[in-house]
Protein 1
Amino acid sequence: MRYRPIDRDPDDERLGRFLPDDWRHVEKYPLTATSRPARVPVVIGVNWYAEFDRPRADQNGVQFVVRAGAKSLTRIRGGHAVCLEPGGEPDREQWWKFYDQGHEGACVGFAWSRCMTILNDELYTARWLWDRAKDHDQWPDTEPGDSNGTSCRAAAEVLASAGHVDWADSFANDDHIERADYVADSDDGIKVFRWAQSVDEVHAVLGNTSADELSAVPILNSWGTEYPHRVWMPDEVLDRLMREDGEIAVPTDR
């Protein structure tokens, strides 16, 4: 499965966010002033640049994905999905450890599950959502059991139509065949999702004072504790990624 715009397989299998072939979801469900929630997480699906792999700390110890700004970005390594943290730093250390996607292209399932955990204070079965999104998406060559990724839109539509599956420790070693029998709860999904189209809209939804002060947004990556818990993405970088066919998903009704 090749990732546009690099027209080849991602450099890293963990970079499993694919670009949809159309933008009907953004056109049909734009974020508006009347639909905009306050202090909720945001899921972004964006190009992932080489610079993002090794965050750098500023003089105050704040970790940034890149320090030199959007113009310093060099090579796209694939597509990635991550959750942005709202104000109050609700993401817990145990969630940082729990939502580790390993070496599979499951980032969309993990980003959306992290989002739903922040909203509902429950752990969810991220690989189940990844499986079902691949069942649902537009690509015939993305199937449960493979390491391919999917789109942020596909997972959002699964959450809206079916809900999500609460995590149970007994699921730990299950594969995609066993996950097919899991039963989702619609109360753990979302009724409506919308798509932000500007950095200002993202800040308004997050309601994160630190983000406003830093002119950056906090990303919660799904690469386990080998990657810092919170890493900040400067607004100018997010703006560039949005213009590069980024999907910026906002749950507006759960």
Protein 2
Amino acid sequence: MEKLGKPAKVYLALVFIILYAPIFYLIFYSFNSGGTMSSFEGFTLEHYAAVFADTRLIIILMNTLIVALLSALVSTAIGVLGAIGIVFLRNNKMRNAVLSLNNILIVSPDVIIGASFLILFTMVGIKLGFASVLISHIAFSIPIVVIMVLPKLLDMNHSLIDAASDLGASKRDILTRVILPYIKPGIFAGFFLALTYSLDDFAVTFFVTGNGFSTLSVEIYSMARAGITLTINALSALIFVVTMGLVVGYYFFNNRARQSMGTGGPRP
């Protein structure tokens, strides 16, 4: 691969500055002892202390984490099985149709998806709250997992499956001891991406959340409408750090999985 020239490096630097400068500006003033973002008066952690001292905010944080973890786990399980089912479909037209439907869900606007779920839950009588948010997050995370797992499945040599079958392995053994170990990087990628999407989602959650239940993204929006305070900065900074931790975790597990694949690979 050719090295990037100086203009390309300058362009990339400008892109990263534009993307990250507002975030670091927000984080910088989360340590401001003053009450505004106009001037930095001194270093303090009181805004972070205010976040952790707010019992209601801690409950909302726990709600957000529970929904994110549950939706990521369920959507990963369903998405992995769905991707395997798509790859092993013998009818090419059916396979392409299912892939198209999956991709449409990814590119559809969140507002449309959120409004659709709101109408659906109203029609079937599901009360808006934890259940409606969890179901919605699972639904929009499944296509993401499918997209992350499919490349690994398509890259897999099907002779491994044939060899395992010839050696007397059952379909369950082939799935658990051949296919799943091989696509492990894609599974981890899908899980962490689904977890991140769930933590950050606002549009869909805003439509399907109800009284008495909220997530951090919706709560931050409500707090911002009431007036900008540096507590929002502190809360946003914490969310950013958690998200970055998830990304680092994904790359860590992905690199370990690649190294294990390179040293030994899956064995039937």
